[in-house]
Amino acid sequence: MTTDGDFDWARFLGRWQEEWVPDEHGTRRDRLGGPPATEEAVAAAERRLGTRLPPSYRGFLAAADGWWVDATASVYRLGGVEDIDWFGDPYGLTEIYEESLDERSDDRERLLAGMWRRALRLETESDMSHALLDPGDTDADGEWALYVYQGWSGDLPDRYPSFRAYMEARYRAFHADRAGSVTGFENDTTRAQDANVERAREEALRGHPETAAELLTEARAFGRPGAAALLRQLTTRPAVNLRFAFAGLVTDPRYTGELLPVTAAAHVEDNRYRASLGTLALGCETDDRMRAAADDLVDRIARGVHRYEPGGAFGRAVAEAREAARWGDADGAWRTIRAAVPSWSPPGPDLVAPVGLTADSVLGRVVTPERWRELLSTPRAGRGGPAPEPAPALDPPGLRWLVDDARDRIRTGYRCLWVEGVEPAALPGLIGEPGCAGLSPHPVDPRERVFGEAATGARGREPWEDRAVLSVGRTASGWAFGFEEAPSYTPGDRFFLSPAAAASAGGRSVVLWVQPARTHSERAVHLSVAERGRELYAFTLRGTETERGGDVPGPLDPDRLFEGAAGEDGERRLLAALESEFALSLPRFALTDGVLHRFTTRSWTRAPREGEGYAVFGWSRLG
After folding, report:
1. What is the tens place of the pLDDT at every residue in 83-95?
2. Helix or strand run (H / E) with residue 132
3. What is d(CA 596, CA 324) in angstroms, rounded to the nearest whole number?
4. How far apart are alpha carbons 160 and 145 in whole angstroms?
5. Whole-prediction pTM value?
6. 543: which residues sit within 8 A by CB, 6+ positions away?
7. Could you write out the three-class secondary structure of 284-311?
8. What is the pLDDT of residue 453?
9. Sheet holding 158-160: strands in order across?
10. Angle (CA) 532 533 536, round 5°
11. What interhelical angle do 227-235 and 209-221 show, nearest 10?
């Protein structure tokens, strides 16, 4: 960056003057600025004010004694050397800002509170606004920060590090205001910025997002067409806070399949916790067909059933990746997508990345911010270049993450089932509730509780029943699994009935249930292992008491695993033993941030036998 001593104010202002045309509401002016102020006039103003003016403002005055900023700005005109004067805080803003200071206030807040009495006022015409240079807010070059205070807004003033920074911002805004509203607004600056947009597009496809983003950030500030939409694709996962970034492109048949779902996903996310999702505002004119397509997309994304289906080799890889992800293999899904990214080509010049991927109801979860950056850094559309460093895997091996990355499981517990030699879709046939129709038709968030679905007495169930709602998938070693977080508290009581035997009709099965201690109950851990319909062994540890069944092998012996190990340490040993004995694992990402199919099992508790009593406790609110 050049210092102000190297900055050519005459050239900068001269270019602005040459390019200037009024906006649709403005009045044409032959000249924006006055003639240069003499050094004697500047020195006289400094004597009157009792201070030396900052370098960039002095340089400006030497090129133009005042300037018509623009009718589109809140400050219309900056005065010359005879107009500027101390602000003097005529509205008592110092007291207002000082009242909000406390011990948590930072230096910037304290600096702003004192600015009003010491600031130099520059404007002579404005919309109840002021341009204020603050001699108390300076940098190493002696520049004073410039604040623009819009008295009607109620907002904090906008800060610019120097007068030059403010003028450059206003020059960019002058261009942006006219880019889409003034016919024939074309000049050397617009042509240079349009060339930067083209260069940025090429840099993006070559896998250089930082270079492209830098070019597009400047071009967007100048209001150049396409810059904002391209930049949005490079700086964040597109399905977040989109608003109208793609307005005008969603109706283009080349981009609708990519951009309309992303826009709909952003709308669903913004309105997720409201009573109604409302109507998706596209920011452009649409016909009935496009309106219906938008409404349908909002509905499908809200229900979690939208599928991103591009064509060609990339589309085939996306379908393969979705199949892996819906059974829990988020890392494998990403490896498939990553390998296919170079084959992706944009349908038109306004797209540089497969943004529609982020709106897919399954794969959108897999595309984390780190992975989106990896995708952007991968050459695409036939461009050559090295592949970027892969983003870190999301799933740690084995099971110990259940303790090491416990989150809420410390308080809620979990139960899980592994079955060898079957596909996840076969689990409902083995242990599904009576009349079970199979897995849910589409994957859902495992943390999304279905209140009442497995509740006592729900849908004609017996009060003693405890039906689990298991999220299912496939482990790295090929076992089918089912997992439920925060189950009811039953392991080890006299009605408990492990589903291990029923699940093992075709091979081995393992059931693990861990419950933390609660106010009126001790910590409990249950393990049972079965093979071909017969339970081989089991144990239930409740506090310091252990109940066994069958011949528990040494590596899984609870006395050895939990001896001298309190709580989580013993659980960690048990999980390590299960990893070693059966090569068991669970996919952390799918269970904490992804989506999986699920189903409701038959009861994990049996009916009371003759002479056995039980009690059901409930509560109701009176009134």
Report:
1. 999 999 999 999 9
2. strand 129-138
3. 11
4. 6
5. 0.86
6. 522, 523, 524
7. CCCCHHHHHHHHHHHHHHHHCCCCCCCC
8. 46
9. 85-86, 120-121, 129-138, 144-150, 158-160
10. 85
11. 140
